[in-house]
């Protein structure tokens, strides 16, 4: 009798695939690699729209599809989509996710992630968490440059370069320094927020239209010293880590935007990390508990620190590096699934070999997943 293939679920949001050629290649090659493996088959999942209302329904779905794992290349956070949250919770109780919800939540929280990396002696910036104007004033040195960012947003959202001169605040946006107000607000639940509000000249209506993108509210605000090389624009290194290997790396430069993201006008070129940087990137990925991640480095002269560990979704750079990241991730996931299957077979054979009086142990997790 023909043996049914095990299934690996895949969720990569369509908007990401449409946004960049490398991300489209990533999704296509991930699916193709699993499809051509001979042992596994890919199952395209739409996690936000899947309708699972109970653990029993999730287990039935898993059994029906012979599902052994899920690759979730997204971070649509669950407080914005309850159905998505429920679907992931039900499925993840039985099959492993690459990357797990816990890992995504930790990576998404810049404050918690930075604290964890520092505890692991991985070089990061000494930032401050501020939630009041008085606290911000105390941390800002006159004419020094600082980066402010929200603690729980990705894709460069809310990342601003600011400075204080003669008691007045300025913010850098789209290649220019502009006057800003920093306003303290208190929400209904009593928590304080800080809002950066860019001032604009009414004679320039296009700038007014940009204000929705320029202004931002932080609750709380993460404040870091500016750490970059001044002579080449805003730059950073980004590498993709899978398991215990750095599989690609690029240098990104943006002359108008502090984030250096390609999506905000930056450009990327292939680069090679030092052995120490590779070790740090792998250690950071493992500290967060991720199977794969996009790790950012900030560089100033001969010094470097890890800026962020991006869990998902993050951009890969196949068209710049020539590295088939989707294929490599697919092969990695299948190796891990092989380990789960072997472990399950071993545990089952060991259980069958036990005397009958000892078989009242806890039931095995499905397919060996703990």
Structural features, described:
The chain is of the alpha+beta class. It folds into three domains: 6-99 and 324-348, Rossmann fold, CATH 3.40.50; 128-225, no CATH class; 229-311, D-amino Acid Aminotransferase, Chain A, domain 1, CATH 3.30.470.20. The protein has helices spanning 14-19, 21-35, 55-65, 82-92, 101-108, 110-119, 133-139, 205-214, 275-288, 318-321, 325-353; strands at residues 6-11, 40-44, 67-72, 97-98, 128-130, 146-150, 160-165, 168-173, 176-186, 192-198, 216-218, 221-225, 234-242, 245-254, 267-270, 292-300, 303-310. An eight-stranded antiparallel β-sheet has the order 5-12-6-7-8-9-10-11. Strands 15-14-13-16-17 form a five-stranded antiparallel β-sheet. The protein has a four-stranded parallel β-sheet with strand order 2-1-3-4. A hairpin with a 2-residue loop joins β8 and β9 (176-186). The longest helix is centred in the last third of the chain and has 29 residues, at 325-353. 36% of the residues are buried.
List keywords for this structure.
370 residues, Rossmann fold, D-amino Acid Aminotransferase, Chain A, domain 1, 8-stranded antiparallel β-sheet, 5-stranded antiparallel β-sheet, 28% strand, globular, disordered C terminus
């Amino acid at each position: 009798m023909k043996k049914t293939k095990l299934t690996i679920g895949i969720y990569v949001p369509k908007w990401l695939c449409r946004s960049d050629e490398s991300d489209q290649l990533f999704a296509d090659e991930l699916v193709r690699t699993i499809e051509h493996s001979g042992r596994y088959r890919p199952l395209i999942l739409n996690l936000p729209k899947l309708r699972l209302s109970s653990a029993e329904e999730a287990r039935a779905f898993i059994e029906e599809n012979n599902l052994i794992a899920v690759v979730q290349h997204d971070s649509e956070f669950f407080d914005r989509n309850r159905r998505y949250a429920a679907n992931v919770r039900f499925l993840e109780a039985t099959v492993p996710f690459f990357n797990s919800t816990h890992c995504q939540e930790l990576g998404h929280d810049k404050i918690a992630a930075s604290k964890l990396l520092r505890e692991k002696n991985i070089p990061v910036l000494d930032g401050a968490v501020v939630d009041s104007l008085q606290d911000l004033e105390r941390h800002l040195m006159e004419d020094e440059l600082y980066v402010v960012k929200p603690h729980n947003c990705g894709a460069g959202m809310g990342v601003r370069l600011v400075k204080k001169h003669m008691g007045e605040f300025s913010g850098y946006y789209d290649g220019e320094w502009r006057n800003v107000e920093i306003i303290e607000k208190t929400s209904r639940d009593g928590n304080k927020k800080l809002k950066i509000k860019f001032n604009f000249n009414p004679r320039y209506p296009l700038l007014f239209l940009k204000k929705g993108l320029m202004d931002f509210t932080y609750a709380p605000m993460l404040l870091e010293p500016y750490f970059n090389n001044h002579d080449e624009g805003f730059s950073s290194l980004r590498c993709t880590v899978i398991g215990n290997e750095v599989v690609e790396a690029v240098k990104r430069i943006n002359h108008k935007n502090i984030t250096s993201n390609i999506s905000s006008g930056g450009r990327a070129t292939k680069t090679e990390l030092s052995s120490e940087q590779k070790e740090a990137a792998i250690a950071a990925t493992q500290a967060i508990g991720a199977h794969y991640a996009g790790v950012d480095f900030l560089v100033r002269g001969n010094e470097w620190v890890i800026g962020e560990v991006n869990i998902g979704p993050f951009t890969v750079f196949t068209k710049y590096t020539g590295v088939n990241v989707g294929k490599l991730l697919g092969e990695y996931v299948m190796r891990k699934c092989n380990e789960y299957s072997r472990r399950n077979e071993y545990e089952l054979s060991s259980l069958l070999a036990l005397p009958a009086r000892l078989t009242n142990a806890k039931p095995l997790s499905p397919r060996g997943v703990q």
